[in-house]
Amino acid sequence: MVTLSYSRAISEHARRHGDRPAITCGDRSVSWVELDERTNRLARAFAALGVERGSLVTIGLPNSIEFVEAAIATWKLGGTPQPVSNRLPDRERQAIVDLADSVLVVGADPAAHPGRATLPIGWAPDPSIDGSPLDDAISERWKAPTSGGSTGRPKLIVAVDPGVVDTEATPPYQMGRDGVVCVPGPLYHNAPFGFTATGLMHGNHVVILPKFDAEATLAAVEAHAAELILLVPTMMQRITRLPDDVRERYDLSSLNVVWHMASPCPPWLKETWIDWLGGEKIYELYAGTEAQAVTIVRGDEWLVKPGTVGRPVIGEMRIQHPDTFELLPPGEIGEVFMRAPANRRTYEYVGAEPRLSPDGWESLGDMGSMDADGYLFLADRRKDMILSGGANIYPAEIESAINEHHDVVSCAAIGLPDDDLGNRIHAVIQVRAPIDPDELRTFLAERLVRYKIPRSFEFVDDVVRDDAGKVRRTALRDERTT
Q: DSSP states of 339-367 as a string?
């Protein structure tokens, strides 16, 4: 076993790979040598602003080479990158910065965070700053992403693992060494950030997109001969919706592994990708940023258990009643509780407390069931479940059916107050072309039992889900009830 700090790993890859591309974003690339020197220079600039071992650095840049460099520079000083969306309003970012007590904020107007060192988008260190190697430093906690949680207030999910890599161990995620990894999603989200870091630490050329675009993603895979790509179902659907002649224009034969995660994947969409690229290439992962436990399922295995997200490969999972915590039998829907291997901690919250069962198992708020073979089937988030007319209705099932319609880009199903039913199902649907509501009801009647068909539809041009497939149902409800 050869364990290197993230800092030393970057330097070692620079020594081995030299001018080979390390990161590409759009039409720009930096080589491994350039990446090492640029992040040494950037780290010294960060140090002059107060960043040191243990410091949290909030990074709110758009997808770019500079985003990744800011994280690497933070690791080189022994600090912890704390990624956030570059689109956050100043007030929301300020709440996160205060919670993290960030020493430095990168990617914001300095006036937005008085009293803290803040660098705007587009800032670059003085080129005269020394780019030679720094003293080695290890980040004790290698990342600290955020989550709004069920309360709507921010929380940090701080990884307790250090920023080190075993250069002789088999890389995770079916990832190779010294290959090409494509990450088209927003880097402030946990999975794209993690796959980018993991790819780099194992010597891979990481190809990111400034912003997700379905055709541009296929073009990037072909242009760089990517071997692995990370997607979410929203991206998969947008790629599927491309005209056949556009989608088939690109050579994807270099792809060995297609990962998807972060939100439920409709079975019809999964089957489409399995038919297109082959089940042996399609992998799904279910876990939280907290990473107490992880399930994985490959496409050909999924065909035997349609709808599953797999069996736990790390940690343990079980299904319990959400109120009594009673263990539930196979096939019965309840709340998914998890326990990390050897009951060890994998994260720490800042600004929140975990939801625990009486015996210490943890829940992320997901509902689901397990079959007799231990395969997990997710229903939806506990807080998103709609109680309508005495029936428990899970939005993900409704959204899966709506998303099958060719003119749907994305959607969200929510419950709105109703005097008779308690809640009525309302669907907010982003469309590519006008849809007749009656035609949509007929379409859904072939896929859903009657009581699950939305009572009302709202067709919008705006994005309902972001590029990471996330939707804020609470905000959608609040906007329509206040």
A: E-GGG---EEEES---EE-TTS-EEEEEE
Strands 56-59 and 28-31: unpaired
CATH architecture of the region 264-383: Roll (2.30)
Q: Range(s) for CATH 3.40.50.12780 in the chain? A: 3-257
Mean pLDDT of the chain: 93
Name the CA dihedral angle for 141, 147, 151, 154, rounded to a multiple of 10 degrees.
70
68: left (phi over 0), alpha (psi -120 to 50) or beta: alpha
**Which of 234, 252, 197, 169 lies closest to 7, judged by CA?**
197
The CATH number that domain 3-257 falls under is 3.40.50.12780
Tell me the per-residue pLDDT of 283-303, one tens digit each, with 9 for 90 and over. 999 999 999 999 999 999 999
Q: 385-481: CATH homologous superfamily?
A: ANL, C-terminal domain (3.30.300.30)
Give pLDDT, residue 390.
66
pTM of this prediction?
Answer: 0.87
